[in-house]
Write a structure and sequence with these properties.
Blueprint (H helix, E strand, L loop, with lengths): L20 H5 L2 H4 L4 H20 L5 E6 L5 E5 L16 H7 L22 H7 L1 E10 L2 E8 L2 E2 L4 E5 L4 E8 L11 H14 L4 E6 L6 E5 L5 H8 L5 E13 L2 E10 L5 E6 L2 E2 L5 H20 L12 H4 L3 E9 L15 H21 L1 H25 L29 E6 L1 H10 L5 E6 L11 H5 L2 H10 L16 E5 L4 H17 L2 H4 L3 E4 L4 E5 L2 E5 L2 H11 L4 E5 L8 H9 L6 E3 L5 H12 L3 H11 L9
Parallel strand pairs: 1-8, 12-14, 15-16, 15-17, 17-18
Antiparallel strand pairs: 1-2, 2-7, 3-4, 3-7, 4-5, 4-6, 8-9, 10-11, 11-14, 12-13, 18-22, 19-20, 19-21
Helix pairs in contact: 3-5, 8-10, 8-11, 12-18
Length: about 625
């Protein structure tokens, strides 16, 4: 190695990034990315400060406005950020909060006993990554304002006269030097704000989007707190008991709140939070919740004689079939595992949650024998179905490399055994499957034809799902197992592409498949392995030239440009009509095809939509279709 190619490395090369300079140099370290995720993270950091005021009991209304210039304004009626001179820094406390990392009211003292943003980098990071930030504070009977640009104050803290209100108003515009695409997603923001309103009973959170032609506005306020959350999760299902079981209790400086309810579906839905932060990977509070529920139901099932003396206890999954629950804990010093705060690690929380549930839920189950019996009998049915599913599951387990012949016979596998370079096309029907098998790249593309419409898993238990031939073939081909057995490291293809006809039946099959993947193989979606193929709807031939078009609007525009003389238009009714070479050219070839990645920005919204569209209740589905009929763009008539 020739060391002469390298520059001088001495004391002059040691850089010290001061203040907010480090944030601008490495923004992803603080907000995750400079894409959409990081952009929206800025809004949530400012909102979290207002929520902390609400948790402390000083804020009742929070308003978020997306302005016409894609700046954002967050207004609350809390106490207002302190403005007097900081005793150590000798500058206004507001300026300290906005320009210094790890500065705020959450590191001791009496400012906040419980808070979500414990790293103290929130609003200062927003300031650093904004082209400009304008803050107005009302407190102590006066109104103050200060403006910043890229983290630096460009005005002194200025008094603007008397004010009878209290609160903070922060407006900021993300910096185009940091964020390549500044466009806020109203839906993504509103979902998180609704969640925060559920978690903070009675607080009114309003979002308004003024950036589009038609102003959009919603207000979220739930006096029932997380009980309202559970009702929201179950709103398109039949439930018991009629009202969610609601428990809240403070123990050892930890506030525990739990709401739960059963429905007649088969899916388990649990959301856990610590200091308003969604703990997607669970943690000690969620483990204690599940453990206590399992123990209490088993104890009552034995007391009622539903589990006989010589029988095994129900497993947790039996008891949580058709279960919706939310657990929220608020504690003084939460320990989140990882910078993303997705798992709660406080060991003491497990004993606290377990104790609260043992006392409060145990008492409820004893005082409501009819509900308790129904829960226990439901768990008994689920346990029987689980045993039947266990036997059926054995048929779908992925064999080792020496037993590769166990793969489904209809699967045309690819030669490549490296998952990162392999694709699986799930194709509707044997005819289209035949064309795809002939037209594919045999080295890297596998094809699995499915016959007809697969089972709607929203209305079926696991034993019935394993009994479905098409689903069994799908599980075996992918190799991951499903549900509790799911193992992403066993996935045989890193691109799974659903390829169905561009008609109503094709859309239905695609929805059934997505429902299955969402309920039983969700990581395939959240980790970005799932795609939808876009086969052409029309072939336009003029002379010797062929053009493929994908939508009615494209056809109209194209025809108006070339005229209709000497032109032949073929509408494909199905993929099976397309020759293998044309299918390769339009839909299979990675160089020319169009595929859409299936993304899931919000699990709560996705759960609601799948339940609504694929569940038992007809009336909510009818209302949904009527409300969104005008938005349909592709409908086979």
């Amino acid at each position: 190695m020739n060391n002469n190619n390298y520059g001088v490395y001495d004391e002059h090369q040691i850089q010290v990034l001061e203040g907010l300079e480090a944030v601008r140099k490495r923004p992803s370290m603080y907000i995750g990315s400079t894409g959409s995720r990081g952009l929206h993270h800025l809004v949530f950091e400012v909102v979290d400060n207002s929520i902390d005021e609400a948790m402390a009991g000083f804020c009742t209304t929070i308003t978020i406005i997306i302005n016409e210039d894609n700046s954002v304004t967050v207004i609350d009626n809390g106490r207002g950020i302190p403005v007097k001179e900081h005793p150590q820094q000798k500058k206004p406390a507001l300026e300290v909060v906005l320009t210094m990392l790890h500065a705020g009211g959450k590191f001791g003292g009496e400012g906040y006993k419980v808070a979500g943003g414990l790293h103290g980098v929130g609003v200062s990071v927003v300031n650093a990554l904004s082209e400009w930030l304008d803050v107005v504070v009302c407190r102590d009977g006066e109104r103050f304002r200060q403006r910043y640009e890229r983290g630096f104050p460009v005005t002194e803290l200025q008094g603007e006269g008397k004010s009878g209100k209290t609160g903070t108003k922060i407006s900021f515009r993300p910096d185009e030097q940091i964020f390549p695409d500044i466009c806020f997603d109203y839906q993504l923001l509103s979902q998180r704000l609704r969640e925060l309103a559920f978690l903070n009973r009675g607080v009114k959170i309003t979002i308004e989007d003024r950036s589009r032609d038609k102003v959009k506005k919603e207000a979220f306020q739930y006096e029932g707190g997380i009980s309202s959350f559970v009702k929201f999760l179950n709103k398109n299902l039949e439930t018991y008991p009629p009202e969610p079981v609601h428990i809240e209790k403070e123990k050892d400086n930890c506030w525990v709140e739990v709401a739960l309810q059963y429905n007649t579906g088969y899916n388990e839905t649990i959301y856990s939070f610590a200091n308003n932060i969604r703990t997607q990977e669970g943690g000690t509070h969620e483990l204690a919740f599940k453990s206590a529920l399992t123990r209490l139901v088993n104890d009552n099932a034995r007391r009622l004689g539903i589990i006989k003396e010589n029988q095994e206890n129900f497993q947790g999954e039996d008891i949580r079939e058709g279960f919706s629950g939310v657990i929220s804990v608020k504690l003084l010093n939460p320990q989140f595992e990882g910078q993303t705060k997705t798992r709660l690690g406080n060991t003491e929380v497990r004993g606290i949650v377990d104790g609260v549930l043992a006392e409060e839920l145990g008492s409820y189950l004893e005082q409501n024998p009819a509900v308790t019996r129904k829960i226990c009998e439901r768990a008994l049915q689920a346990a029987r179905a689980r045993e039947a599913a266990r036997k059926a599951r054995e048929l779908t387990r992925r064999k080792n490399a020496l037993e590769i012949t166990n793969l489904p016979g209809k699967l045309a596998d690819c030669a490549n055994k490296d998952p990162s370079g392999s694709e699986l096309f799930i194709v509707e029907g044997d005819s289209a499957g035949g064309s795809a098998k002939q037209g594919r790249d045999r080295h890297s593309q596998a094809v699995l034809p499915l016959r007809g419409k697969i089972l709607n898993v929203e209305k079926a238990r696991l034993d019935k799902i394993f009994g479905n031939e098409e689903i069994r073939a799908l599980i075996t081909a992918l190799g991951t197992g499903i549900g509790d057995d799911f193992a992403i490291d066993k996935l045989r293809y890193h691109k799974i592409i659903i390829m169905t006809d561009a008609d109503v039946d094709g859309s239905h099959i695609r929805t059934l498949l997505l429902t299955f993947f969402f309920r039983y193989m969700e990581p395939l979606i959240s980790l970005g392995y799932m795609y939808i193929a876009q086969p052409p709807l029309f072939k336009v031939t003029k002379g010797k030239k062929e053009h493929y078009l994908y939508r009615e609007e494209e056809l109209d525009k194209f025809m108006s440009g070339i005229g209709r003389k000497g032109v032949t238009v073929q509408r494909y009714k199905g993929l099976g009509e397309m020759n293998a070479d044309k299918l390769w050219e339009t839909t299979l070839d990675p160089e020319t095809r169009t595929i859409i990645k299936v993304e899931m920005q919000d699990a709560i919204q996705a759960n609601e939509v799948f339940t609504l569209l694929m569940g038992d209740k007809v009336e909510p589905r009818r209302r949904f279709i009527e409300a969104h009929a005008d938005e349909v763009r592709n409908l086979d008539i």
